């Protein structure tokens, strides 16, 4: 594999090397182990080619074109300390393959896999110095909000939740202890966008790292590292895996010192995914480009229909010219994704009737799978956010979030149409 996609998968620094926090501490670069095989993927190859071939060279012993599932927890050493793999918590063939693949797609140098998106979040926050300050987009996933507010505080880490849609809000919020800017773009669930290069320019003047949660768009539609971000985070559970059957997280970075610190914590904290989950997630990754195209086609059709419906107050989809940041989406993204939020004309009871009336959109949390899902954020994914903060963010009782799947477009539009008709015109 080209050096730009090298993954130092089994390099684990010593406690002394990793003693510093994520920011402002020089960390000795670990040695890079030999790749599993030839890694014939080029950085100039197209997205689909990289998705299918990165981390998936044919097995040199058997010729198998699908990497084998390695369930072993330990590995034979050819002498003390002479090994390719040592112990499966530290490294595993399937995890290394997946980490190569996700790094290649994000145009990154280092990929790290975790047991969940929140496990990745936990690892990043644990890499910060005690008492660090984080500035986060105020409209973030409810689990992230909960972790910042109720768990990270145990390490004396404080978080300022800020409207980062306006970069000029950032400078006044920065303190001497600020170590990380946390971005979701588009945000969850109101699909606000952040001008990533503008935030990066401000943050880097103060030697602050910028993280972008890229879960909603995937690297097919947005590559934050190319926009200047230092770290990209994914809930692999969503679009990366794409089949609603794996819970995983991932981090990608080009920064060697960040990778060294996080890889030490990945091994030391042990919040790692199973070999089977890595095998499944890489299988899902191979069709990401095909799935994302259809997600976007379907979402645009549904969004346009919703915008034309008299039963809908407003539609939030960055692909619509009506979105207040549509021009930023055109400039920063390569597409608009499969997530839509809209406010149904009515109240929570109307929203409940809609969610109870869909035939193809399943009432469920999560997103990014091949099947279409619908949910009410105020009581489901963002139930942990205070009522006061939900009101400020516009997470109203009639705000519905759709994860538009890859079913036939016409069927999804018809399903939304009949559910709206039933919800608005049926007496409570």
UniProtKB/TrEMBL annotation:
N6-(pyridoxal phosphate)lysine, modified sites: 238
Top-tier EC class: lyase
Recorded GO CC terms: cytoplasm
EC number(s) on file: 4.4.1.1
Pathway assigned to this chain's UniProt record: Amino-acid biosynthesis; L-cysteine biosynthesis; L-cysteine from L-homocysteine and L-serine: step 2/2
InterPro entries: Cys/Met-Metab_PyrdxlP-dep_enz, PyrdxlP-dep_Trfase, PyrdxlP-dep_Trfase_major, PyrdxlP-dep_Trfase_small
Family: Belongs to the trans-sulfuration enzymes family.
Name of the protein described by the UniProt record: cystathionine gamma-lyase
Lineage: Eukaryota, Fungi, Fungi incertae sedis, Zoopagomycota, Kickxellomycotina
């Amino acid at each position: 594999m080209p050096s730009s996609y090298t993954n130092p998968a089994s390099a684990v620094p010593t406690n002394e090397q990793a003693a510093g926090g994520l920011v402002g501490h020089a960390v000795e670069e670990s040695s890079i182990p030999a790749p599993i095989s030839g890694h014939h993927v080029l950085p100039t190859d197209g997205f689909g080619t990289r998705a299918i071939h990165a981390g998936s060279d044919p097995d040199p012993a058997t010729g198998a074109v699908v990497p084998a599932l390695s369930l072993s927890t330990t590995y034979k050493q050819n002498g003390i300390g002479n090994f390719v793999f040592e112990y499966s918590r530290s490294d595993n063939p399937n995890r290394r393959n997946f980490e190569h693949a996700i790094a290649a797609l994000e145009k990154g140098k280092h990929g790290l896999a975790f047991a969940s998106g929140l496990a990745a979040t936990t690892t990043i926050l644990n890499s910060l110095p005690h008492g660090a300050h984080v500035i986060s987009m105020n409209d973030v996933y409810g689990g992230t909000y909960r972790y910042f507010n109720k768990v990270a505080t145990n390490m004396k880490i404080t978080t300022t939740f800020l409207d980062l849609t306006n970069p000029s809000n950032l400078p006044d919020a920065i303190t001497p202890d600020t170590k990380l800017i946390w971005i979701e773009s588009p945000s969850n669930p109101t699909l606000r966008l952040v001008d990533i290069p503008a935030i990066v320019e401000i943050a880097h003047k103060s030697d602050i790292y910028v993280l972008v949660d890229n879960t909603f768009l995937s690297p097919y539609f947005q590559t934050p590292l190319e926009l200047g971000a230092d770290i990209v985070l994914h809930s692999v559970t969503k679009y990366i895996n794409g089949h609603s059957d794996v819970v995983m997280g991932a981090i990608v970075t080009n920064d060697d010192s960040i990778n060294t610190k996080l890889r030490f914590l990945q091994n030391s904290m042990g919040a790692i995914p199973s070999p089977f989950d890595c095998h499944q997630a890489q299988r899902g990754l191979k069709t990401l480009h095909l799935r994302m195209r259809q997600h976007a086609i379907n979402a645009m059709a549904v969004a346009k229909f919703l915008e034309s419906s008299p039963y809908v107050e407003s539609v939030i989809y960055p692909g619509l010219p009506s979105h207040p940041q549509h021009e930023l989406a055109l400039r920063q993204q390569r597409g608009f994704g499969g997530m839509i939020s809209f406010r149904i004309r009515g109240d929570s009871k109307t929203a409940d009737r809609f969610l109870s009336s869909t035939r193809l959109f399943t009432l469920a949390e999560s997103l990014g799978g091949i099947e279409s899902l619908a949910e009410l954020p105020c009581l489901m994914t963002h139930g942990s956010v205070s009522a006061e903060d939900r009101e400020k963010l516009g997470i109203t009782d009639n705000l519905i979030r759709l994860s538009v799947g890859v079913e036939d477009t016409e069927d999804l539009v018809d399903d939304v149409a009949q559910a709206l008709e039933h919800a608005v015109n049926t007496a409570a």
